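Protocol check, entry for the methods section draft. Step 1: assemble the input record (protein sequence plus ligand SMILES). Step 2: submit for complex structure prediction. Step 3: store the structure tokens unaltered in the notebook. Ligand used here: coenzyme A. Step 1 record:
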Amino acid sequence: MIYRKMQARDIDKLCQIEEECFSMPWHRESFEEMLNNRCALFLVAEDDNSVVCAYAGLLAVLGEGEVCNIAVCSDRRSQGIGEQIVRKMIEIGRLEYGITDFTLEVRESNKPARNLYEKLGFVYEGSRPRFYKNPVEDAAIYWLRNQ
Ligand SMILES: CC(C)(COP(=O)(O)OP(=O)(O)OC[C@H]1O[C@@H](n2cnc3c(N)ncnc32)[C@H](O)[C@@H]1OP(=O)(O)O)[C@@H](O)C(=O)NCCC(=O)NCCS
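Step 3, stored output:
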């Protein structure tokens, strides 16, 4: 598995992963905007057969990194790919974008993702009521702060 920055040729596959994972998926235009945004860091995981099977993205604003999304293809989960891609994103975010603190929102009921973030040291700091739609649900807010 290699972890590399997103390129234009990845976008079709990323849209496919989004459709598979989320009730309100990102559209192609959103990924295209991220390609041209100097504050955006989007990584993909590509396997030995050059198949992209996961991605993770963040936006860097004034030293803080807002994690936008993380998704692993359903048939490639529980193989450590999600953990590796987030670790890589944090490492590059610190080194290349000068990010000290990272934050994210996740559906309260999304246990796999919450476990992953907590394993990586993110700390639950509160909730945003009814943040998500389709279905309506609160968001859990996490931070990974520079020690
Ligand atoms: C959340 C997600 C990215 C995890 O990716 P993954 O590659 O399957 O996760 P990994 O194999 O790297 O697991 C890392 C850790 O995550 C947690 N985890 C992953 N899958 C889990 C599951 N099914 N149940 C509980 N915890 C889980 C565990 O803490 C695990 O560590 P462990 O293996 O030592 O127990 C993946 O399930 C996914 O794409 N889900 C759909 C999209 C999504 O919800 N994204 C997050 C939006 S905020």
